[in-house]
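Work package 3, deliverable 3.1, input record:
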Amino acid sequence: MIVVMEPGAPEKQIDTVVRRIEELGYRTHVLRGVEKTVIAALGDEREKMRLQALRSLEYVEDVVPILKPHKLASRTWKKESSLVPVGPDVAIGGPEFVVIAGPCSVESEPQIMETATVVKSMGARILRGGAFKPRTSPYAFQGLEEEGLRLLAKAREQTGLPIVTELLNPYHLEQVAEYADMIQIGARNVQNFALLKEVGRAKLPVLLKRGMSTTIDEFLMSAEYVLSEGNANVVLCERGIRTFETATRNTLDLAAVCVLKRHTHLPVIVDPSHGTGNWQYVTPMALAATGAGADGLMIEVHPDPTVAWSDGPQSLRPDKFRELMQKLRPFVAAAERTLAPMEG
Amino acid sequence: MIVVMEPGAPEKQIDTVVRRIEELGYRTHVLRGVEKTVIAALGDEREKMRLQALRSLEYVEDVVPILKPHKLASRTWKKESSLVPVGPDVAIGGPEFVVIAGPCSVESEPQIMETATVVKSMGARILRGGAFKPRTSPYAFQGLEEEGLRLLAKAREQTGLPIVTELLNPYHLEQVAEYADMIQIGARNVQNFALLKEVGRAKLPVLLKRGMSTTIDEFLMSAEYVLSEGNANVVLCERGIRTFETATRNTLDLAAVCVLKRHTHLPVIVDPSHGTGNWQYVTPMALAATGAGADGLMIEVHPDPTVAWSDGPQSLRPDKFRELMQKLRPFVAAAERTLAPMEG
Amino acid sequence: MIVVMEPGAPEKQIDTVVRRIEELGYRTHVLRGVEKTVIAALGDEREKMRLQALRSLEYVEDVVPILKPHKLASRTWKKESSLVPVGPDVAIGGPEFVVIAGPCSVESEPQIMETATVVKSMGARILRGGAFKPRTSPYAFQGLEEEGLRLLAKAREQTGLPIVTELLNPYHLEQVAEYADMIQIGARNVQNFALLKEVGRAKLPVLLKRGMSTTIDEFLMSAEYVLSEGNANVVLCERGIRTFETATRNTLDLAAVCVLKRHTHLPVIVDPSHGTGNWQYVTPMALAATGAGADGLMIEVHPDPTVAWSDGPQSLRPDKFRELMQKLRPFVAAAERTLAPMEG
Amino acid sequence: MIVVMEPGAPEKQIDTVVRRIEELGYRTHVLRGVEKTVIAALGDEREKMRLQALRSLEYVEDVVPILKPHKLASRTWKKESSLVPVGPDVAIGGPEFVVIAGPCSVESEPQIMETATVVKSMGARILRGGAFKPRTSPYAFQGLEEEGLRLLAKAREQTGLPIVTELLNPYHLEQVAEYADMIQIGARNVQNFALLKEVGRAKLPVLLKRGMSTTIDEFLMSAEYVLSEGNANVVLCERGIRTFETATRNTLDLAAVCVLKRHTHLPVIVDPSHGTGNWQYVTPMALAATGAGADGLMIEVHPDPTVAWSDGPQSLRPDKFRELMQKLRPFVAAAERTLAPMEG
């Protein structure tokens, strides 16, 4: 931690700051520059928020942290990339580029069965589908709840695809865990620390989506909540951030994939459906994700998006999803990864 | 709802869209402009997300909603401003400009007692203090939990100030409700819909903070979650949004106060402590809030911010808080509101 | 400047970095923390961008500047607040709270004459009006050009108000300087360094507007361009930044006023017309600006905004401007500033 | 254009709005919904900014444009993609994926000669290099100016690569045009309309970079400025936008490429050097750009970035650039485009 003093800070005040830092258990080193004096605090910064409080002292201009606050999620702590198994024979983070696909919401048995069959035949490896839905409006469809979970399990039985579904409420963890192979924590809950701790104690792998205004550092701290409770199987998902640009629903931050792959050993996938909010942009951004170094994709597919109960505008029809998977193949090869074969 | 067709959309496709809209229960009206055709859908837009799905049809360029999605929170629905009572003799939203003050976290009995006594003597009307703390890092102090609630209740007993404290986890609602006069939902939980529904069924007034990247429309929809469960006592709090500017912790969006006061009957207060993240900017932004039309303030005060367990940099020392309250008085008068007198 | 090395950086690489820093003329100091090594570079950072290049060395994680890059604009360099004279008897930055008002564009003689007379009678001290207009569309009205300047001068003659008008093109400097009392550099040109250098060599005071995505540090560097060419009379204007929120045209960053007043001696005014883009929010944000510590306001006024050639939605009718000035008076008094009296 | 009236707007006011719209030369159509009345204005929206002024009328809630404001840049106006020739044998926008490479600034003859030779041998087709540099600080290196232009011309002579260089000041257009094959307008000047008009009258192709907070619609309007002056050879360049995320210098908005390719016939390239600000992320984002549908890249290369006078942190060493070009080849093939061969 570096404490920067304002120009003209009196010696007495510099001494006060030094003493405070040492009381908190750090060694100090005072550096006198041309205009400003800087105090380096050496020691473990796990307690760095406490040092931030020094900013409330007069003549302290800034307190600059040096260590990243995350630990278990960090590549400094664990150098090799992690492999997160989902169901009996899929793993994210290895040589295979894993495509997760399915509808935004589970709506009916025919809808989920048809989608599951179709996406499997085209090379998807995990089925997604929402049973509990976070909706901006209390008047919008909130999901089929347990009935939705049952239908997902039925689709898994039929296709063999493991299933991932979102958890909104700690009350439902047990119920969701009974059916799902992987638990999704959505963008709006990325800093719902009560929920993160809860899934940290669960046995299932966790798909953690970045929030709309979560920095990469905060995103890793949210992963740290899950890891620090003992659950090492976390997959991160970039799904777009909120910016001034309104031509797309969100701004898909593909550089975040590079930054994450550098700083963490956890796998990183990309969701171009939410990331763009428009089916016309899903395929190019899926292709782009391979270049950025992603370990896989999450794609919304619906048999008829025009009647979807949620996220219709960004869902692909089965024929468009087939096209995506066909175009994806040479890009995955260019990235020196493998893709599950298309059937038939 | 206005459906905009791309230039050159074939008649057949326009017919398809019209039919779809009518199937969803709307009347339609087709308007042919010079370059584009536009289809107006007349009817209740409560189901508007369904219409959004039309964007997945080819040749549909855009779907523009006309009605605001909120209802109970809207001034169209209720014209007079709402008054939200907190404890036996305070109410937010009336002629009184209400100041809420207290530490970020409850840390100890002397700390909360001293703060409560001091802020009361200077004209604060409600005591704030966190017992359950949402922290970016799992390794940071997470709050004194029930012990914190007990200390808050003790401070109320001594000073008569009603207390507001944050709820993070639906599991703790009963416990928090036992002690608190008002429940705070923090910025990170503004779209934690499970939690919103839970406090919507509680009897206590709710202080709902805007999220770091929540639009004003989404903020009102989150209030709508609470209102639609039957709890009419919601106070909104602007606390800064996330932008590219890093000179302040957040960008305090005071114009949001004007926009909210225009569109909703609910009271709106401002938190310049989180809004700026720097004690040096708290007082001027508190004064500014009066001009913007706020119904009150929420201010972090700590007996010694340099040893605060959280949010030290943005907390005011008692002498600085006194200064704020003194400067505030003529601004509140200029805004034609009243402020509780300072003691002694 | 602090150079942060990655964990595990080899000694040899640390030596290389130290040597490079010393070659650039800095003294170095190596600090070895628990996880990371940090190298402090002591010396003048005027050349700091050169040090940034060290980030391209392997094992260098970050390069953190300590000194602010601005000099002449800084309060460290000049402690007392600057007073910028505009015309013979107005000055911005002193005890008087100065209101600049007028139409977005000069449209006709009756329009500018009527507006000038009206705003003067209500207490405005400087007349604004655009003769050269920066328009997003090449097909939109681009201003009356020299004819506009002539009409402004005529309005000055009639009312005695000094005039401020925007300069877009270095070619027009001489022409504009012939008529105007103050030159405005608009938000879109805040980093048009060719133009900044040009007005830095002019004799007239400069009104510099913050860009839509200009950080406060960059804003001060743009002022530094003008100051470093020898023109000391710069007034800064906060006019809203671009964020994800669309309920207002921009997000008026009033905290920027506090930050600027702390770091620079230059006067700071606020433009709530562009800052909100909506006449309904102009008055409350104007009142709020007094609390934030602004030295004045810039307000768009038009005899009939519904027929304005530009910025109609955010312009005030004369009766609304009178209301603003009436409400403003007690706020200016609360801020311990003075306001020119209203006539009649 | 759709004018939305507030709920409860009186009939008289609706009539007033209708009359105003008709006075501006539009046909109107009044649609009465359940809660709100909406007035459709049919006609050419070239004058739409005038209609926006209706928002200043009471009871007008919103004015929603339907037509995009750009014309010459639009695919509606010209369906086939444009091909922009640069120098005698390069063209951007066709089957070839064109790589532009070179240093941020021209610093010396050996530097530019070495870089030009090296990037050519690896498959770059155009040489970039700044002679006039837009720098945040007036104290930073501002470019070699005409000497820089001369060195660029010498490098072209030696390698045959056409050159692109930035124009900052309309005064220098003639000088720059004498040497360059393509004129770059930088991000900070994207709304410097004086400069845009100037290059619109030039004979050379223009490389127009998106500004840090320019929306895609505004970006196209800036292109429209150049096109409407008669210069049809415009190439757009996505180079990152400003968001809350600070892990990268900018947030590279690759989805903007898809949106642009859909709405305009102009070629679109990507600059991952400025887009990320960190050499470690340049290669993955370059690869990603192929998937997004870009027509080429602009990459900063420097013989020794650690001594670069500007942009060192984001510049590639020649060996890293070679690696980029090698990895790029299969991605370009996957995108069904061609890439110039590597020599030797």
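The radius of gyration of chain B is 23 Å.
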